[in-house]
Automatic annotation (TrEMBL):
<feature type="transmembrane region" description="Helical">
    <location>
        <begin position="54"/>
        <end position="75"/>
    </location>
</feature>
<dbReference type="Pfam" id="PF11391">
    <property type="entry name" value="DUF2798"/>
</dbReference>
<protein>
    <recommendedName>
        <fullName>DUF2798 domain-containing protein</fullName>
    </recommendedName>
</protein>
<feature type="transmembrane region" description="Helical">
    <location>
        <begin position="15"/>
        <end position="34"/>
    </location>
</feature>
<dbReference type="InterPro" id="IPR021529">
    <property type="entry name" value="DUF2798"/>
</dbReference>
<feature type="transmembrane region" description="Helical">
    <location>
        <begin position="87"/>
        <end position="112"/>
    </location>
</feature>
<keyword id="KW-0472">Membrane</keyword>
<keyword id="KW-1133">Transmembrane helix</keyword>
<feature type="transmembrane region" description="Helical">
    <location>
        <begin position="132"/>
        <end position="151"/>
    </location>
</feature>
<keyword id="KW-0812">Transmembrane</keyword>
Amino acid sequence: MYKEARLPQNAKEGILFMLIISFISVNTIAPIIMGMKFGFSLVQYVETLKVIPFMWIIVMILVRFVAGPVVGKIMPKFVGQTDGFNARVLLTIVLNVTVLSILLTIIGTWVGTREISLDPFANFFKSWFRNFGIAFWIELLIAQPIARWVMTKMHAK
């Protein structure tokens, strides 16, 4: 994308941007998904907190080495010269959330249950649609706006 005050301008800002988004996402999406699957309770929330550090590392690795490159190759096929900032951001969110939710529906189940099994595949579509919906709205309404606000404040200085 072009120089935009709401987006990172260098690698250091890119890392900060990714850390903000991933921190917010992991700390909101995981508890909501687990609560919807197993019920909202303090015990369930504490169990989710035990998994969050591992999920945060996994999310950052997937964003950097899987979702980022895949979305980077797909974006030019859909983005036009006249598309504005908001259209590009929305498409980026949709594509990133799609890739990550597919992978994390499987990997997240393995990490959460602490075993590698075929269960995530047996219930994939039911789980994936729920996970995608939760992740999409968290990214669109909370994580991305906060990260862009931080970038705007940094660039205003």
